[in-house]
User: Fold these one by one.
Assistant:
Number 1:
Amino acid sequence: MIRLKKYLKPFIAAIGLAIGLLFVQASADLNLPKYMSNIVSIGIQQKGVANASPEALSLSGYDLIYTLATAAQKETLNSSYTLISDPSQENLKKYPNIAGKDFYLLNSNITKLQREALDVTFGQAVWTLISLNSGQGSNGGPMSIGSLDITKLYQAIPGLKMLPAAVLGAAQSSSSDISDTLKKQTGVVLAQAFYTDLGVDLESMQMKYIFNTGLMMLLITLIGAVAMILVVFLSSRIGAALSRNLRKDIFKKVESFSNEEFDTFASSSLITRTTNDVTQVQMLITIGIRILFYAPILAIGGIYMILQTNVSMVWIIALAVVLLLMMIAGIFTVAVPKFKLTQKLIDRLNLVAREGLSGLMVVRAFGNQKFEAKRFDKANRNLADTLLFVNRVMNLLMPFMMLIMNLTVVLIVWVGAHQIADSNLQIGDMLAFMQYAMQVIMGFLMISMVFIIFPRAQVSAVRIADVLAVENKIVDLKDPKHFDAAQTGVVEFKNVSFKYANAVEDVLHNVSFKALPGQTTAFIGSTGSGKSTLINLIPRFYDVTEGSITVNGVDVRHVTQHDLHDTISYIPQKGMLLSGSVNFNLKYGKRDATEEEVLKAASIAQAVDFISQKEEGFESNIAQAGANVSGGQKQRLSIARALVKNAPIIIFDDSFSALDFKTDQRLREALHKELRQSTLLIVAQRVSTIMNADQIIVLEDGKIVGQGTHRELLTTCPIYYEIASSQLSQEELAL
């Protein structure tokens, strides 16, 4: 993936925006359990009273708490509340019973820490009362927290003030040992009594709190949903755009390959890399942006929220995460090597399928359908078995994940129930802790899902990078030359030798000849003599090993490939047609060709007759690779396509092999008549095709063993005579 990082650069801003939105989504998801906990703990259990320290206190209420407070707590009370003598209409609306009375109002600028300390003060006051009521320094006694009567407490204030300092101090000391959580819970009960004393409707207060908290949860959910939708949109756009750029660059790179590079990569492999491999990378990017960044945020955020909720049960999460990581590591150790094998097996399947389909006629001719079916079945089964194995191993992940999650929930409930019984934890906090635990585990689960995709995508990325990193052997010079207009159509080989990459011996040895405009230069020789190799050097499908080839007076290596190919029309031995109309195929080399030019080229190529027999004529459809035309028709259309281009140099690489003798003769006569100014280079196996050529070059084992006209070679070149005598009668040889 690192080798493809440059493809992510155009999307850095979009990725940054997506990550920002993921923080918003994670923040929303992490805050929902807290609000849910508040609804249970505060809204339901505490009747909407969130703090043990009330917003307002009557004079008697303040006096009660002040009497029970320690010296330090009294300072806290004095700094937190302000005596109000003239209540505002807003205060009267909130607290109806303060009409005409002085009361204490909580300062608006109080901090969160100060409020928590104040809550502890009120909670400790309740436990001081309980301790005093029990007549001993313990938490036991006849007084029940739920049965606090605020009126009786107010009546007891004078008696509390008369208590000896030692007795009050002992009660305060005893109450200070109570946990802050329990102090706050009990302090809320006293706060409810204070609110009732001020005329507050607790039921209305409870409903308002639940409604507002629920509304906040809906708003947070909406924000999280919008953020998630935007992240999905952005990640999908990034993944699609990145895969588009990859496919475009792979195709562009492959188009620039010379035959030497094509010898390195099989066509089936290049197809797989352009399609399946790019899809794997796209899937990783699309899912990775949404999960790879979100999962750690969720997991780390969940752990942070857990630490804020209840530290005593963190060991449960740690245990679950350790078990989870051990399970993921074990599964991936088994699965990852299989992921790396999958892409190679896809290559193999594509290769077998491509060979079987492209060579279907040969397969049928030899009656090898069953053999090819078994061959395909083997490749298919190997891939299927590997994928099944990987899927089965990865499918173990989900049941184990669910088992760990459920056991974690059971353990949280078990431990949490004991803490609730000991008044060290509220039910809402336990529910929130449970939700956070699930979020942490889900975070690790999502990370594991990315790890499932990553190994295969990594292999695909390496395969794509291997194609893009290929250094083309044939490249244009930075400062190319231009053709010499005075030598248009001149092709010259000067002591050319050539050998394929990694080959030990040369295929061509010291080849020299010159082809001129208006002449036909033909090449003949036994199979493997180097005819097609020689022809392929002219358009630079390969570069010479030694010597040089000049076209239009300039070395082909010194001009751009575009200019070189513009001056050459090439007809391969195997005619390759594209899906589309006949007209589309004939104009492929010259898009702006007129109908007259197309008709003339088709006429020279002897293709007009069979084209006109089709219902739609030149607009008739050609199937992929010319599957709906015969071999001879395919060759004639290929020749016509090259002639439409009207290039000064025309190369025929054994392009008459599928033509009957009559069509071959008429085509050669038309070429001789219509292309008097062109340089014709013809590779042929039939002597009759080239016997009228201006010069014939005979090749044997990559060397020129004869050069001249047909008549000259019959007397000077034994190899040519041997070839000719095997094809022509004695009467034809004597002519």
Number 2:
Amino acid sequence: MAELTKTPAAKEVKLADPREASIEPSTQEMILRAQKLQIETVFDRAVTMKPCAIGLQGICCKNCSMGPCRLPLPKGGIQGEDTRKGLCGATANTICARNFARMVAAGSSAHSDHGRAVAETFLSVARKETKDYTIKDPAKLIQIAPYFDVATTVEVDGKKMDRDLDEIALGVAEAAVAEFGKTGGTLSYLKRAPKPLQEKWKKEGVMPRSIDREVVEIMHRTAMGVDQDYKNLTKQATRCSLGDGWGGAMIGTDLQDVMFGSPTPLQAEANLGVMKEDHVNIIVHGHEPLLSEMIVAAAQSQEMVDYAKSKGAKGIQLAGICCTANEILQRHGVPPAGNFLQQELAIITGACDAMIVDVQCIFQNLANVAKCFHTKLITTHPIAKMEQDNVVHIEFDEHHAMEDANRIVKMSIDNFQNRGADVMIPHHKTTQIAGFGVESIRYHLGGSFRGDYFTLNDNIINGRIRGIAGVVGCNNARTKHNEEHITLIKELIKNDVIVLTTGCSAIAAGIHGLLTPGAAAVHCGPGLAEVCETVGIPPVLHLGSCVDNSRILLAATEVVKAGGLGNDICDLPAAGSAPEWMSEKAIAIGQYFVSSGVYTVFGYHMPLDGAPEFKDYLYREMENIYGGKWDCEPDPIKHAHKMIAHIDKKRKELGIDKARERVLMDMADRQALGVE
């Protein structure tokens, strides 16, 4: 084992208490193992490095070289007029709003650039420029084509006939790529939202014109000396975030479904215990499934399995970290080894032969940890390299996708023989059901012929289901790993709130046993438990990766369409949450959910406290404009009950707050109903 990244023994260093760092046993075991091996992890760094107090308040401006200008709140808070100003005169509200908008721009860029990569690959498929990707879900292609104004039928001799699938694919691909830089009109997918919501956006002037333009405009507006009105800055942040949620991210999700297949519920395992000592262990980590889809195909090929056996392994164990894990889980049943804060720990097992990364949420410290073991760390994306000399870069090209994947898997297998004897794989893993989507939820609610969201609406109206919660987002080393996610979700389902989850929150729910139908009997209130038992679904539905939050928007839209619960998303007894958020992507997601009418609560902390007026605008006034608003609550129980209180408020507004007596109907009662 190399000595390069060990903490110097002579130096007195504060270390994380494993039991205080995480509620998850395998994570605790691996933190302790890392400390015994004197290998620093994110959990230890969180103890030794404290966040900037002024940055936490959102009032540090470094947008020009006269700064950074720091505007701390005076002791005792604001008394009278707030006179704090930067060198240029920028107020605390302006600085805080600029910082917030820039987070929205960065987060939107990340998810939308993911969507762009998928759209460009799909264009290669449509043009027959690659053999490795195909159209696996033609029904989904035909479903989304009209939103891009691409015809799916053609008239021949006065009769309508199905149009050639290749022509539809090319039309959709070209239109999807154009969405990122179109020069006129607004985004095509906005028409998927409920009509009243579209009217709100139009009235407020926040209909995104193109995905890239809104990001660029935020960067312009937040440059020194441009937009100095926090309400106007928030308006542009709204437009940019909608370009992500109803644009780039939604395009990415849909075209992934078209190329790789729409997810359907399947069973898999979760946690670090999925790794196997006698197998080649390959971990894929990141967010774009273009490469990971090919890695799955290569690792499962008989040629590579035989090659692994020739090197002394019994086979190949593929697993994932972060949203790449969710992508290959929901389509192939490949198990997640962990979420964001567990990425270093997968290497610390000593059994990881290769970790293959692409973009987003990847610790640079992985390279330092890999030096202590035999692990090959392989970067694959042209925009995401690492400076350390022990990192291998194999640039992925979708035109030679399978060739690149085979090369990477072969390199991983070759490294199996370099594994040391000091291997410690935790014995913790759980079973989960994942792979839900808008279509599969519809099917589970009523089968092939009766499937619809009416069933869900009926059970919300009759009170068995109190409401809907979207619980999503990251882990944050400033909070106890997984605790906020799990405590919050358990409190929601105990109170008959069904949970839709994505991202690292979904992985946490899987690891802690909440993604099985059996969890309903253990953790749910009687109403939700009854529905889950009858329908055969878990009380927490895994809807995919972070980019798949668009599935939650579309599921909410389907609930509106099914009727009985209002005319817009803001009318629904529903709320959103990101209890352990970390990334700028979470801020972009939060803003597009708020702007779509969803009450959205974040945990940990929001960088707004230094600008009380701007904070009040996000937390209160936005509800008057869009029907949704921001909130923050670090305590997970209080957090859950804020969401429940909002759900109850919406139930009262809809007139469904009173429990309805359940009546057993005899034949005479049924006949009296009549038939229309």
Number 3:
Amino acid sequence: MSNTDKIWKEVKVDSPKASAIASSLPSSVSKVAQILLARGINTVEKAKEFIYGSVECLHNPFLFHDMPKAIERLKKALEHKELILVYGDRDVDGVTSVNIIVDTVRKLGGDIEWYVPAEEGYGLNKDVISKYASEKVKVLITVDCGISSNEEIEYAQTLRMDVILTDHHETPSECYPNAYAIINPKTANSNYPFKHIAGCVVALKLAQALTLSFSKEYDKNIVLYYAKKDGENFSGGCLSLKNGLEIKKFDFKSIYEVECDLRKAFKVYVNSSEVKDFLIKKDALLGNKVTVIDIATEDIDELKKAYIEKISNDDILRSFYEENLDLCALGIIADSMPLSDENRIIVREGLRIIKDNSHKRPGLGFLLDDVFALKGIENITTKLVSWSVTPVINSSGRMHKGKLSVELLMTKDVLKAKSLYSEIIKLNENRRYLQFENIKQFKHLLKEQCNPESDKVLIVKASNLDHGVTGIVASQMVKSYAKPVFLFITDGKEAIGAVRSVEGFDVVAALESVKDILIKYGGHSQAAGFTLEDSKSDEFIKRICEYTDKNLKKTSFLNTILIETELRISDITVDYYRQVEMMQPFGIGNLQPVFCIKRVTPTEISVFGSRGEHLKFKISQKGSRNVVAIFWGESKLAKFVQSETFLDIAFNIDLTERSDNKTAQLRVLDIKPSY
């Protein structure tokens, strides 16, 4: 038996395959091949992209179904100096999204205003739309919201606003709003290959596509031409692209078969200098002044990759990334998006940008200075952003003043940034107090309205509390009880709620099951919000409980530790720690690797900390060297460790530094006696 209720589950991998991948990787990362394989990264190419992938691996924004339509409408607005409004959510994801769109449009000479909700709550509001319509707004861009705002978007259309809807939330049904264009990876007609992006990434893609639309290559036919020349004869293939998307691909046996496409081309990329020289001599090409570029590769995939790399390293696009990936990284982390696929690249690059110049945005710089001073550290990580940056930026929105955080990230004026930061810090203190009070109230009501031990789902109704921190309180309750939590607050007429979930239970689907009694709802599978008439509260609770009974499996409650690799004492080195760190950034979808070590002997057991709350001991294995193990907050297990001859330990590998001497150690997650 484990000394805790946690269940260990060891991942089994194909050892020969892991060895094959390891042998093809640089020595600096070869030791983590088994972990990569355990995470489904099962080829050398995938492994290299995971470790080294950069902006050229980001997906093409024109893969969104309505992107060309949205871009043409925005270009028209820019050309005719039409007023544009960006309407976003008031959390970090929404705040960063607003900043990305506003900054991009202004750089392109557009006339743009922005709005985030105050007292009126999440999502679009008719009164706000009406106000801006009276100010002659012609294009409304939603960011991080809108996919469930059918009525409000219909209303905007009646006021002669064209709505470009950008969102990433689950689509409650396939009855989408009547928007001019919808940019959302989760719509039924979306061709976008990665669905789990934050609202700020969707905003980034719109801004990127708009930026690219002002390049010379926008909407032009680019031909990737791979051929072999034997005298006057040619054989090979041709791939036509427009905005980086494949239009046509075919093989040919003669140069004449592709001359028609070459005449229409804007640029031609070829795989050899010999073919390049021949094509330049062709009258058809000279007449059209087509640029012919030699990329020098025989492989079509490599040819396409080289083209994408050239485009990605264009000065305009490179500058665009440097200006926006830092904001996007904050939004992704704050919205708990999985750190896989392009999210991983954006966060890694974004954190690099922040580290290189934290005061590029003075307001963010002030916040980081305080965090670094308080924590006594110098590096920015996903954990630091999640724990210390996100709550502060979110606090203004939770206290109904989200515009302050938009301005904090937007302003380049140091004095203004300092003033805004001071105001937000005060709001954050108020938010903490409000959070404490609401937790106290909801915990009291939880005991009255639920049975936390036996109920599958916890649904708590309160009255006359502030709505700003309901989501935070629900999240804390999920951590405490490992069950879905629905919290809502009523004023006697309407009830506004937040729901947070456990893995494997989709709360948007749960809300969909009671949509006939909801005024509005929306969100992700693990976090959502809803509004209903207070008179429907009892029916809501009854039906959600019935839905949960049918759809929530008992396995959702299990507290499982996933072990990815078993190590020995000889493996726990500074070099191995550094290889594991190459898998950063860590977070949801790319958790810090968990290891186990078996049949180790504990010695030198002690407790430490201001209240003696932490446990420290050393371990060895069959006469090996000693390695330090730290179990934070678990000093109560000291007697258990002392009583055991052999232990199995689940842990993260960590690094400690004393007097310029770096050593690897264990950050213990769980311990149990060896058998």
Number 4:
Amino acid sequence: MGSSEKVKERQQNIRKIKTIIRTLPDKPGVYQFLDEKDKVIYIGKAKSLKKRVSSYFSKDTGQSGKTTVMVKKIAGIQHVVVDTELDALLLENNLIKKYQPRYNINLKDDKSFPWLCIKNERFPRIFSTRHVIHDGSEYYGPYASVKLMNTLLDLIHQLYPLRTCKFSLSEKNIRAKKFKVCLEYHLGNCKGPCEELQAEEDYNEAIAEIREIIKGNISNVVSNLRKLMKQYADLLAFEKAQVVKEKLNMLERYQSKSLVVNPRINNVDVFSIISDQESAYVNYLRIINGAIVQAHTIEMKKKLDETDSELLTLAVADLRQRFESDSQELILPFNLDFKFPAIIVTIPKIGDKKQLLDLSERNAKYYKLEKRKQMELVDPERHTKRILSTMMKDLRLPELPIHIECFDNSNIQGDYPVAAMVCFKNAKPSKADYRHFNINTVAGPNDYASMEEVILRRYKRIVEEQQTLPQLIIIDGGKGQLSSAVGILEKIGLRGKISIIAIAEKLEELYFPNDPVPLHIDKKSETLRLIQYMRDEAHRFGITHYRKKHEKGVIKSTLTEIDGIGEGYAKKLLYKFKSVKRIGEASLEELQQAIGKVKGKQVYDFFQKKN
């Protein structure tokens, strides 16, 4: 490949990367940079994914030479959205250990986050560790803040005297008097279970309370600390009271959400699905030892209106095979029609597993939004095409309704009957093509006849002037107005050349020619929303014209009968008093104040004689 081709390819890749960056969410998360072979070369965390990732590609970054080299190798970007910065930090740690990217050289094993361990033994010890051993012990964490964890551990040892020795305190060894109490016993830090000075039941009660503290159920502990602080203060031991106060403040700030997830959730697969009429988006999270170690989202194009259950079943099978998962539990949003053998399916409603499912769903939603935004940046007309395709499918149209015209009649008890037509092209208003119609051949309120006149005038002219026909006509009304419009189209030879429907306002029912049963479309569908928008726009446009015509009619029929009052003075009066009735009820002073003494006196005298 020549140098010019390489430059061109690099420029195309930069445009692709910038498109991805523009659609990143302003949320905390973890991002992964991939090279041209889709290999992860760098993993980072961010408070704002959009701001952090875009900083690598801005001109004034002041970045090092190594970073510049890495940025040049970036061919793709993936990311995972999480709830907090802490979650992003912990997830970054897990992913770096898993993928060991080339440019994450500063992350070493001794930087892994610690856990609190309640050892699986008689008279359990509680200590911190960076190594999780599957020996039946309980592990809580990981803790991103070592200071916070040590404060919690110190607090536990202060409140509950526990052994720290590694002796095997079996009943046999204790009764054989193999051990003697150590300095910790004499300091009051241990109650001497090694010499049978503390009962196992009493010790285990303390362990049960400690579990609650670690989980974040600290209200009782806070109460005990306050009592201890007061005792020190009463004894004038202010330094000790201050130490307890500091620990109390730290404990009150402690958040049980220092975990990515509950560490007891181990070797579990989480799946969620978000779908629309075209595609489904499935997110997969793999949980090992209470932490997210894998996250992946895929898009599945629908072919035959498959259900979410069918799509999710296929996705679960594919992703578990792809990532070689051996988990025995699936967390899903609903039960599948297919039963995976020897696997437990959980559909959580509350608790830690529900939070995991919610997190998975958010990642699927963000992925869907980003894919849509990226496609719209590459193809700005894609959104329009999708709406028109959906409408064509929902309304069973023979072609895309690129050009739509919607009609509405506006009159009050047959007074000043008018009609309006609004035109939409590519699902957007084409206001230059809007038209008003004054009803000329209909006497009194007759919506059917009025609709016939308007349709005849509109499409007879289009035929005569050889203008482009719309693909769809929408009538604001029921079956009667639709039949009137269809009759006219047949009369002028356009029946079958233009699709036509009517929308009844009360129940939002759609009527088709020669079909007595209306069509009910999903209230949230884009098709119905667009039809409603056009109907409302036609109504607004028609009412505006009606009001103007009504105002002119009032001026000509009543006010201009007054000697010396022309259209200009009549408009001033209507603007001031809003109606002819109020003008007739106004006092001489009010009228003169509005249009002058002479003209005001003329109007006042006119209405006095009329009354």
